[in-house]
Amino acid sequence: MRAAVLQAVGDKHLDLCYDIEMVEPTSHEVVVRITHTGICHSDVSAMNGTIPQDVPCVLGHEGAGVVEAVGSEVTATQPGDHVIAVWSPPCGQCEVCLVHQKPNLCSAIMYHPDRLRPPFSQGGTDIAAMARTGTFTEYTVLYEHGVVKIDDDIPLDIASLVGCGVMTGVGAAINTAKVQPGSKVVVFGAGGVGVSAIQGARIAGAAEIVAVDINADKFDKIKEFGATHAVIPEELDDLKSELTSGHGFDYAFECIGIPSVMRTAYEQTRRGGTCCIVGVGRLDEFVQFNAFELFYNEKKLIGSYYGGVDARVDFHRLLRLWRHGQLDLEGMISRRLTFDQINDGIDAVRRGEVVRQVVEF
Ligand code: PAD
Ligand code: ZN
Predict the structure, then answer these.
(1) pTM of the complete model
(2) For residue 211, which of 227, 191, 197, 225 has the smallest C-alpha distance?
(3) Which of 218, 84, 56, 232 is nearest to 158 (CA)?
(4) Are 54 and 128 in contact (CB under 8 A)?
(5) Contact between 58 and 126 (Cβ < 8 Å)
(6) Predicted confidence band of residue 112 (pLDDT cuts 50, 70, 90)
(7) From the centroid of its chain, how far is CA 156?
(8) Pairing mode, if any, of strands 82-85 and 21-22?
(9) Which domains does the chain have, with CATH numbers?
(10) How far is the first Cα of the chain from the last one, in angstroms, to the nearest whole number?
(11) Which residues line ligand 1 (CB under 6 A)?
C-alpha cells in the first residue's frame, strides 16, 4: 500500500512509498482505511527534530476513514463504521482518566504493548507510526480506543481535521483556558490550530479576538473565522494599548511553538489573565521567567495537550457545532492534495501559507 515515510530526522521531504505492509491486527485492534488526512505542523516538527520521532516512520496523525476489519474482542466499532483517529486515546479506567479526570493525558493506550510494535514494514524493515497513529497511508492499524465512530453523513475530509488541529485549538479555548463571554483574546499563529483557537474563543463568546501572524496575506481569511482584528507582530503593542488600555489580554494563546513568542504571549496577558501554550517547541529550547513576575502578575500559565480532549465526548460536541453552523470546518481546507502532492503540502506548511490541507487517498 501507499504511505509517506520519514526515513531520517532532518529529511526535507517524505519518501513516497508504494510497497508498505501492515501488521495483522491483534484482538483489540482495528484496521482503518484512511480516506483523508490533514497535514499538521507537528508532522513537520517530527521531520525537523522538534518532536522526537523514531525512524523510519509513517507520519500523519490527523485522519479519518472507514473501519475495514476489527479484532475478535473489539465491541465498540465494526467494519463499515466511519471513524476519526485519536492520537492520544484514553483507556477510560486508569487513575488519570477517572481520578484526575484528564483523559487526554492517559498514556495507557499510547504505551500499550500492542501499540509499541511497529505497525508497518517495508521489505522486512520495521516502520513506526507517528504518535502510534500514522495516517499518511491508505490503511493503518489502531488500538480500539484510538477510533471514535461518527455519523455516516459527516464528510470524512472535515472529520479528519477534528482528529488533531481543530480539537486542539477549539479545545484549548473552551476546555483548557475556559474563555469567558465578553473577554479579550489574542491568538499567536493562524494555522489550523490557531484558527481553531480563534473559532473556540468566538464560540465561547469572546468580545475581541486578535490574530497575530507574520503572514498578512491570511488576514482577510482569518477574520471570516471570527478574529475581530488581525495584525503582524510589530503592530500588536499599539493594538494592545487601544483595546486593553495597556493592561493586556484576558487570554493569550501561543499556537506556533517558538520560545520568544511564548514569552510575548505571557507579556501580552493581563495580570490575573491566562496564557495558554499550545504550540510545541523543542526539548532543548527554553522560555525564561524572572522569579518575581510569576508571583507578582498572578498570570495563569497553562499548557494545552490535545485541547484537553476527551475524544469520546468532544469530537461529537465539535461536530454538532459544525452541523449547526457554529464551527466552520470546510473553510479551513486551504488545499486538497493527492498522495503524490504530500511533499508540496509539507513545503506550504513550512511557508505558513495555509490554514489546513487535506490529503485524499
Ligand atoms: P501552522 O504551521 O499551520 O501555523 C503556524 C502559523 O504561525 C502560520 O500561519 C505562520 O505564518 C505563523 N507564524 C510562524 N512564525 C510566526 C511568528 N514568529 N509570529 C507570528 N506568527 C508566526 O501550524 P499548526 O496550526 O498546524 O500548529 C501550530 C502549533 O501547534 C505547532 O507547534 C504544532 O506542533 C502545535 C500543535 N500542538 C498540539 C497540542 O496538543 N498542543 C496539537 C497539534 C499541533
Ligand atoms: Zn497535529
Answers:
(1) 0.98
(2) 227
(3) 84
(4) yes
(5) no
(6) confident
(7) 16
(8) unpaired
(9) 3-163+328-360 (3.90.180.10), 167-307 (3.40.50.720)
(10) 11
(11) 40-42, 45, 164-165, 168, 188-194, 212-215, 233, 255-258, 261, 278-280, 304-306, 349, 352
For the four alpha carbons of 105, 190, 166 and 273, in that order, the dihedral sign comes to: positive
Grid look-up 481569511 returns 221
Q: How many contiguous H segments (helices) and E segments (strands) does the chain have?
A: 12, 19
- If you measure from the C-alpha of residue 280 to the centroid of ligand 2, how many angstroms do you get, rounded to a whole number? 10
Encoded amino acid at 152, one letter: D
Distance CA 63, CA 265 (A): 30
Tell me the best of 106, 232, 253, 256 to mutate to test the pocket of ligand 1, counting ligand atoms within 8 Å of each CB and taking the most. Answer: 256
Q: Are strands 82-85 and 63-70 parallel, antiparallel or unpaired?
A: antiparallel
pLDDT of residue 273: 98
The residue whose C-alpha atom lies closest to atom 27 belonging to ligand 1 is 41
Segment 55-85, tens digit of pLDDT: 999 999 999 999 999 999 999 999 999 999 9
